[in-house]
Every structure is written in structure tokens, then in C-alpha cells.
Design a protein that fits this description.
The chain has about 325 residues and is α/β, with parallel strands linked by helices. It has 10 helices and 9 strands. Strand 1, helix 1 and strand 2 form a beta-alpha-beta unit. Helix 9 packs antiparallel against helix 10. The longest helix is centred in the last third of the chain and has 33 residues. The radius of gyration is 25 Å and the shape is elongated. The chain starts with 5 loop residues before the first strand and ends with a strand.
């Protein structure tokens, strides 16, 4: 690669006032060690703890810093997308600012890109500071998703990754709202590579992914990249219908042969509840797919940008000569 290559780092920030300065220090050292130009793009996803004030201080003291402030909390995946739309590098590295993913791995990702990979996944070898339930549920989710999904999402790979410019451009051409970026990146294709690392415990603060958000995230991944839930619901309905038919035939034969079926309502109640449950599950699965169609039809922007700082004509290579506020799916508001 040429000596004038530029590397962009996109770091979503949501209530990380305790860790963002330390993250900036470590990330700056890691990027400086590459000997190439770089930019650090922080996306404030509606923080309410003073993170924005800390980010403004960092931008005032470091010309490598670019800031994007969303109008409210749009979610982690939308914040990543906002950062990607503002990144101008030959590579774009996505990493969270909570320091669970060590910035020191970034030079290794860049080295694999220089060897020809368009997408370099950072694969977790060990997860420190997480409960046994979190580790088990995450492991189960990745394996279930791999079985269900129509794309090959690497096991134990999160959002920490490097993407080449052409991979980023391909990703930005995908406009869906219910975004599961990990699956979208896998869908792109191109040449991939992996770097194994040990994930650290959070530097400070609490996780931004409670069980409710984890469940929603899992649904986005499964429904966004697989039609199997619909097929499973169809087969489940067929199995229950066939079972009911066989049972009905057996009862008729028993009656004709003079055998009196067991009296009572228990078996009837169980059958009614079983059939009703299957119907509700099927309707629920269909509803999830229909909700995503509804989100796409509404055509709302993926996010709204309240403020951008640090982007100038000299350093904003991606939007040089263009009307940056209206580029892609981004919208800016006063």
C-alpha cells in the first residue's frame, strides 16, 4: 500500500465519560505506531453523562479527532453506520470505547489488510469480566445464528473489525433500518482474515446491553438474515395438524371397536392449548418480518446528526467537494 494511506477508527460512544479519555490515549498510541495518517471518529449516540464535553476537549487538543453527535440515542448499530458514513480512510476500524476490545490489536488488523484482506475480524479468544450466563448465551447465540442464517457469520466475532474502503462502500449501499452490522459485513463477501485476541473487562461503567437489548439484537440478526423461522413455523403447523388428524382417526377407530375413550377434559384442553400456542408463535414470527417491512416502507432516516466537528475540506477526503450533510442516509438538524 502507498505511504499516504489513511486509517479511520470509528468508536461509538454512549455514556462512557469514565473510559473515553483512557481509550483515546491507548488508541492514539496504537495508531501512531503504524506510521501512517489516521483519524479518530467518535460518534456520540445521545450520551447523557457528559461524554460529549469530554469529546470536545479531546477534539480541541488533537487534530486527528472528528466528532459526530446524534440528536438522540439511535442505538449502537446506527451509531456505527453514522461513523462509517463520515469515515474517509482507506481502511475503517470499528471498535467500542469501553476498552473491552484492546486498541493495541489495531496494528495487527492493518497488517492483515496490507496482506490483501478486505475484512479482518477480531475474534475473541477469551472474555474477561463477563458472567457465565453472558458467555454461555453469547456462545449459544453465535452458533444458533450460524445454523439459521443464510450468511456465514464468524463465531465469536463482534463489531471490532477492519474493513477496506470498498467493503465500507458496499456496506453503506445497504439501506435497511433494522441493522445487524455483523451479518451485513458477512453478506458482502470479499477476502476475509482473522486476528485472535483476549477481550478485557470493562474499564469503567456498566454494560449497555442488558438482556432485553441482547434479545432484540439476536432477533435482528436471525430475522434479518434468515427465512428459516418462517419455514420452522410452517413445519411446526404441519406437524401439529398431522398429529391432530392421526389422533382423531385413532379415536374414531377406538369408538367403532367398542372401546370407550378416556373421559374428561384434560386431553382436550392440552390439545387446544398446543394448537393455540403454535398459532400464536407463527403469528408472532410473521409479525416480526412484517414489522421490518413496515420500518423500510416508512423511509425514515437511519439517524439524525446534531453536530459534526473536526471535518474540514482538507481532511474530509470522503466528502470533499460534496454536500456532506446530505450524503448517504445521514440527515443533520440544528
Amino acid at each position: 500500500m502507498s505511504g499516504d494511506e489513511l486509517h479511520s477508527v470509528v468508536a461509538p460512544v454512549f455514556n462512557e465519560v469514565q473510559s473515553v479519555e483512557r481509550f483515546h490515549e491507548r488508541c492514539s498510541v496504537a495508531l501512531a505506531s503504524t506510521g501512517r495518517a489516521y483519524e479518530l471518529i467518535y460518534v456520540d449516540d445521545g450520551s447523557r453523562d457528559g461524554s460529549w464535553e469530554v469529546l470536545k476537549r479531546l477534539a480541541a487538543g488533537d487534530a486527528h479527532v472528528r466528532l459526530v453527535r446524534l440528536s438522540r440515542n439511535f442505538g449502537h448499530q446506527s451509531a456505527i453506520s453514522a461513523g462509517l458514513e463520515n469515515a474517509g480512510g482507506d481502511t475503517v476500524i470499528v471498535i467500542d470505547a469501553d476498552l473491552q476490545d484492546p486498541p493495541e490489536v489495531i496494528p495487527d488488523l492493518i497488517a492483515r489488510w496490507r496482506n490483501g484482506a478486505d475484512i479482518v475480524y477480531a475474534v475473541r479468544r477469551r472474555r474477561e469480566g463477563e458472567s457465565a450466563f453472558k458467555r454461555a448465551s453469547a456462545s449459544l447465540f453465535y452458533r444458533v445464528l450460524r445454523w439459521l442464517a443464510d450468511v456465514d457469520v464468524p463465531l465469536d466475532a463482534g463489531d471490532f473489525r477492519l474493513m477496506s474502503r470498498r467493503a465500507v462502500d458496499a456496506l453503506l449501499a445497504m439501506p435497511e433500518h433494522d441493522r445487524y452490522v455483523r451479518g451485513m459485513v458477512a453478506w458482502i463477501g470479499f477476502e476475509t482474515d482473522k486476528v485472535a485476541y483476549e477481550r478485557d473487562a470493562r474499564y469503567a461503567g456498566e454494560t449497555k446491553y442488558p438482556i432485553s437489548k441482547m434479545t432484540r439484537f439476536a432477533l435482528d440478526g436471525i430475522i434479518g438474515f434468515s427465512m428459516r423461522p418462517l419455514r420452522i413455523a410452517t413445519w411446526l403447523g404441519l406437524i401439529v395438524s398431522l398429529t391432530a388428524f392421526v389422533l382423531a382417526v385413532a379415536l374414531v377407530i377406538a369408538r367403532l371397536l367398542g372401546h370407550i375413550p378416556v373421559q374428561g377434559w384434560t386431553s382436550l384442553a392440552v390439545l387446544v392449548l398446543l394448537i393455540g400456542g403454535v398459532q400464536l408463535v407463527t403469528i408472532g414470527v410473521m409479525g416480526e418480518y412484517m414489522a421490518r417491512i413496515y420500518n423500510e416502507v416508512r423511509g425514515r432516516p437511519l439517524f439524525l446528526v446534531r453536530d459534526r466537528r473536526g471535518f474540514t475540506e482538507g481532511n474530509d477526503r470522503r466528502f470533499a467537494g460534496a454536500d456532506a450533510p446530505e450524503a448517504g442516509r445521514r440527515r443533520e438538524v440544528d
